[in-house]
């Protein structure tokens, strides 16, 4: 079996090389966006560097955050954030329930801004922007009754924190500033900017190394390296930390997710040269994760471990990892029965990911924005579609109806988010469903999906053709990861090449207007 995997992986790698050969030198360049902390005009940076850290605090505008009454209203609305994984490790660092989450009341926020501590002020500002990111679009200013426009506050806060970071990072920033980077990571994950989130966590790692946090037990270091492994795998980049021992029992599950993520990244990078030890670590790690994160937990056990929403989030990550492990091999199941079990694993986890996403959404008293969760589930829905239309693995009508019910229920949840990513993902799935049913009447179009691939929809007089291209089936590290999930997918450059392609043609339904 190991030799078969090695041969198939070698074949996939050759496909990647062939796919890359047609690219121009310009297209092969890797373009990385500027660090989010540094996206400020150069003349502004020069002026800010010439000022002392204390003067930076004095220059923070008084209206950088909402007024006192509105802030109180925001805190009341956003109380469920205290129960989410977004706050880890801060919920563990602060054992006092009143301090859980860093800044839980209005006075603490304003006191932090008035302090002479750059790191504390940065952490306060990013925490406030994270709260702002969770507000509904019709949220109003408590004093004026006008729409609050949280995006404008978030942009201003990020600019200010960039300036404070530069003032605090010579040669290494403070612990508070590193915690602010972790919170900034969570903010960018929530608003659909995973590449920028990855850069925040890398900046945190650099500063933590300079402070020696990796040399001693540190919850903050644990937060950094686990997130580094997770996000590096998702966007297809090498992780930057060694395997670390985590002594805290509460982190065992998250640590295992981080370790397995790293092993999968190693396999995807090494491809046919992956040693058996890494493959064995992947298999054993996934077995342990399935035990640590069962799909069904007794209520008594759940209360002792995680909140229901935390359990659902970790189920989503578990199923995403299992899909990534088996997906490259599952495409051979139609030709070689020894790979059928990989197809079964992929399909079970794809449905499991959508079920977990449904629980995440249903357990929220108020809509919690996290574009990454929506996108991971969207990827699972695309995997289900590809298997559904594959001629090598035909399904019964009942099975087809079940899969489409699961997918279209997910589409409904995406629409309810009202976010750019949710709308774009729902549009893609609606187009696929319409084509499958022979009812697509939209225009021919090309959609480039960041972190996945490209979808081309074309029509002739009686048929719709769907062409899906992706690298998730072939271990291929993406050529460019600078595009964010919230970008306009129809405007992204569509000239890239991918290691896998599927073409599916659907006849128009009888009576469809020409």
TrEMBL record:
Lineage of the organism: Eukaryota, Fungi, Dikarya, Ascomycota, Pezizomycotina
Name the record gives this protein: Transcription factor domain-containing protein
Superkingdom of the organism of origin: Eukaryota
CDD domains: fungal_TF_MHR
The entry's keywords: Nucleus, Transcription, Transcription regulation
């Amino acid at each position: 079996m190991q030799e078969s995997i090695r041969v198939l992986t070698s074949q996939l790698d050759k496909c990647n090389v062939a796919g890359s050969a047609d690219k121009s030198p310009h297209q092969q360049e890797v373009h990385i966006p500027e660090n989010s902390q540094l996206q400020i005009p150069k003349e502004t940076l020069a002026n800010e560097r010439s000022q002392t850290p204390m003067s930076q605090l004095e220059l923070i505008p008084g209206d950088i955050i909402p007024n006192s009454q509105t802030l109180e209203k925001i805190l009341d609305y956003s109380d469920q954030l205290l129960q989410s994984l977004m706050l880890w490790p801060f919920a563990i660092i602060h054992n006092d329930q009143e301090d859980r989450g860093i800044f839980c009341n209005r006075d603490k926020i304003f006191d932090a801004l008035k302090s002479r501590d750059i790191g504390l002020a940065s952490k306060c500002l990013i925490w406030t922007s994270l709260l702002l990111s969770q507000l509904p679009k019709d949220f109003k200013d408590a004093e004026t009754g006008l729409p609050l426009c949280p995006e404008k506050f978030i942009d201003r806060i990020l600019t200010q924190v960039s300036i404070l970071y530069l003032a605090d990072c010579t040669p290494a920033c403070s612990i508070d500033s590193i915690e602010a980077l972790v919170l900034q990571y969570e903010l960018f994950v929530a608003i659909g900017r995973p590449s920028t989130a990855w850069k925040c966590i890398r900046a945190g790692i650099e500063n933590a190394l300079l402070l020696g946090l990796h040399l001693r037990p540190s919850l903050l270091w644990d937060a950094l390296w686990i997130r580094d492994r997770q996000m590096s795998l998702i966007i297809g980049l090498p992780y930057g930390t060694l395997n670390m021992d985590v002594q805290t029992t509460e982190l065992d599950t998250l640590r295992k997710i981080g370790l397995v993520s790293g092993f999968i990244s190693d396999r995807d990078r090494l491809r046919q040269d992956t040693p058996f030890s890494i493959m064995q670590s992947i298999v054993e790690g996934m077995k342990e994760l399935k035990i640590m994160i069962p799909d069904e937990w007794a209520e008594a056990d759940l209360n002792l471990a995680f909140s229901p929403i935390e359990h659902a989030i970790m189920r989503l990550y578990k199923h995403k990892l299992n899909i990534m492990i088996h997906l490259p091999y599952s495409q051979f199941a139609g030709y070689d029965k020894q790979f059928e079990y990989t197809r079964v694993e992929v399909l079970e986890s794809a449905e499991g990911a959508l079920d977990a996403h449904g629980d995440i959404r249903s357990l929220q008293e108020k809509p919690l924005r996290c574009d990454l969760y929506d996108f991971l589930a969207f990827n699972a829905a695309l995997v289900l579609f590809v298997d559904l239309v594959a001629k090598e693995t035909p399904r019964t009508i009942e099975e087809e109806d079940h899969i489409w019910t699961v997918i279209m229920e997910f589409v409904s949840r995406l629409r309810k988010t009202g976010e750019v990513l949710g709308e774009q993902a729902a549009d893609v799935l609606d187009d696929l469903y319409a084509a499958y049913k022979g009812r697509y009447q939209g225009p021919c179009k090309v959609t480039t999906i960041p972190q996945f691939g490209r979808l081309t929809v074309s029509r002739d007089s009686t048929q719709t053709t769907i062409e899906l291209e992706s690298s998730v089936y072939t271990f291929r590290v993406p050529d460019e990861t600078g595009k964010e999930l919230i970008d306009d997918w129809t405007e992204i450059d569509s000239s890239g090449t991918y290691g896998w392609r599927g073409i599916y043609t659907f006849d128009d339904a009888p009576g469809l207007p020409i």
